[in-house]
Write the structure tokens for this entry.
Amino acid sequence: MRTLAVLLALLTASAEAQPHLVFDRKIGNQWPDDNRWMNFVAFRADGQFVAANGDGLRLWTFPDGQYVRGVAGETLAISADFRYLTTEKSILDLQSGKIVYTVSGKQDLLLSAAFSVNDEYVAVRSSPHLTKGAQITVLKTADASKVSAFGTRYAAALAFSPDNQTLATGHWNNVTLWDVRTGARLALLMSPPPPSDAISYNRDGRYIYGLAFSRDGTLLAAGSDNAELQIWDVAARKLLHTLKIGGSDVSNPAFSPDGKLLAAGTYGNGTVYLVDVASGKILSQVQVSMFGCGAVAFSPDGRYLITPSNSGLLDNGKHTQGGTIHVFRVEN
């Protein structure tokens, strides 16, 4: 009887010890924005600042939440050191205030962007394309000189590998890997057939709208508009896990610094999920909004996870009037 009790205690302790998300009541929702739609968030590489877009880009200190500055324009991406910013109309050097690149046409826009980990390059998709006949253009961040241009299919997501040599792009039913410098296609990661209960308008496939590499570059996470989260083995070109996490569009996912955890949010049900990478199992999930959960970001030490919500849901169940950045501790 005593042996059974000890075994049950060990099993209970083990279950409680798994990583999970805890709303941080001290930091809480310190970064509200009057704009109801916040879908971009990032930590600076040193973990001392947080950036998010709402009514333009806004910067705060972390964890005390002191407002630093704002930048007008729809933010697409910010470099790891927070020096460079890509908006729908330009690439900016925030340190000097210099505009590195501006879209020429009045109706033209940059539609998506991603910086390399070392901030040397920025990949952009524009309308119309910067380079005729190519969907993706890779530029040198410092002066916007062209490095390469490639791809003829619509790309819904962009992500650089940690070694800055490979660019992943999300498409209809696949992720494509490219050589950053030459534009050569390295691999095509095909999505499996959708489940029988897939949303009818996407029954024949899904767009990959969110991408993220693990810090060591061995894994790639892909989120789709069919509420699926995929984990790929990059070297083996093998799909390790597919999770149906509910809602609709899966926002840009993020791996924890040690690569053991993966986080993602969904716009359909406004929920953030924490996933065990090895098993592909959901460890924790928290609804942060009734209207949508934007991209997620781990702090550099892996202790915190932040996500912006739209018309945010506070921990007491009451709605705010605008977007809010929620801060969670990642606890065992």
Observations:
- The two ends are 29 Å apart (CA to CA).
- Residues 21-331 form a domain with the Methylamine Dehydrogenase; Chain H fold (CATH 2.130.10.10).
